[in-house]
Every structure is written in structure tokens, then in C-alpha cells.
Amino acid sequence: MRTEKDIHDLVQRRYGEIARDGSLLPDGVCCGPAPDAIAATLGYTQAELAAVPEGANLGLGCGAPLAYAELQPGETVLDLGSGAGFDSFLAARAVGPTGHVIGVDMTPEMLERARQNAEKAGYTNVDFREGRIEALPVADASVDVVVSNCVINLAPDKARVYAEAARVLRPAGRLVVSDVVLEKPLPPLVAESVAALTGCVAGASLRDDYLATIRASGFTDVEVLEDAGFGELALEMVPRELRVQAEAAGIDVRAVAATVRSIKVRARKRA
What we know:
Blueprint: H1 4-21, H2 35-42, H3 46-51, E1 76-80, H4 86-95, E2 100-105, H5 108-121, E3 126-130, E4 143-149, H6 158-168, E5 169-182, H7 188-191, H8 194-198, E6 205-206, H9 207-216, E7 219-229, H10 231-237, H11 240-248, H12 253-257, E8 260-269
Parallel strand pairs: 1-2, 1-4, 2-3, 4-5, 5-6
Antiparallel strand pairs: 5-8, 7-8
Helix pairs in contact: 1-5, 6-9
């Protein structure tokens, strides 16, 4: 049984490697879709892909949550698990010079990359902070919108993440996230795999449990905006060794992949 610290350490190590290498492909995978191709599949437009600094998009998302955030000039936005800054930079463009974006990430290599991207592109309304999304370095009731893209599934205590999101939001503030959920429990071999954990699969909650956690954390008007398959894309990022082990154990890998979903959820903090 992995402890919370074990999970944080595994995730931080893996995403530090991604930040340094500029690739999300794990050992044992020779090739895969380029970050821009992944982002286009998830719903980002070519204009959005061209607007962010080079190196900000690492192909790590499972959706395009900002499409539903309805960001307004002057708003303050918090990006949970901001990585190299892709969604943070898009949010910064939307809220304009009178707005502000805070990106929080626990991986120093990702923060360094994001800050370099901000500096070279001249973004002055983005602030990248080191911290865990279960204990945000953000003041109470100080942001208008919380967004996140395929990160909360990596957190061992999702209830704490959503409680923190509610804490930092202003009354009636809104939440828009893309994340991975499961239709049914994973086979133990997959659920216990480090590669499946850091690949945003093994740490995912059952869909109904995930939505119940949001509602119990101080949010109302919880709605699923999109629900799409994510397993096929996840399979492309899983080391061949794990797929071979699963098949040797009699696991129908394609059937398991079909239970992995990407959902976009919107909610509002209770006033």
C-alpha cells in the first residue's frame, strides 16, 4: 500500500523528468503523438496552440477546460497543477492586463520551465507558485475561477483538493476542471502500476464518487459538460511491458481502457 508521500514522490519524480525532457513518453515507448496533436484532439484550437510560448504545451492534459470557464477581463484565475504553463498562459490572455493568473505546481522543474516561458514571452500577469494542490499557497476567498487539467486524479486526497479550491474561491466563484475518472475499478495489476498512476489512470476515482466529492466540498450546480473516452490515448503512453504483463495475466487491455473516461466538470462555490 503506497502512502500519500509515496504517491507525491512518484508523481513529482515523473513530472520532473517530463519537464526536463519535454516529453511525456515513458520508458519503453518509442514514439507517440506530438503535444500539439494531443492538444488538438482534446479541443484546443490552432489559434490557442500558436498563442502560447514554445515549450508550454507538453501534451499533458485530458481536455480543454478553459473553453467552459467564460473568463472575463480583470478576473483572478487559479490553475491547479499548472505544469509548464499552457492553460495559465491561455487564461492570462483571456483575463488581460487587469486580471491575474496563479499557477500552482509541486514540481520544481515544471515551475522553472513555466517561469522561463513567462519571461521569454513577456507575461506579467502570471504568478507561478510552488505547492501541493491539497494545501494551496493562496489566500482565502481571493480568486474568481479555479481551473485544472488532468491533475486532480494524481492527488491521493481529492476531498482535500476540492476543499482547498472552495476555500480560495470567492463566494459564488466557479470551478471548471478536466480530469480522468473510471466507470469501474481497475484490475489490481493496473491499479498498482506506477506507470498507470503517473499516466493519470491508476489514481482516478470512480465517476460517481468523484462528483460526490465535489458536491461534499462546498460546491453546487455540479454539471458534467463533456464525457469522452480517454483509454485509447492513455494506452499510447503506457510502457509496452505493462501491456504485455496485463495480457499475460488474462486482462483484456482494450476493455479496461474503455472504462477510462475524460470528463469536464463545472461547478460553483456555495455563496
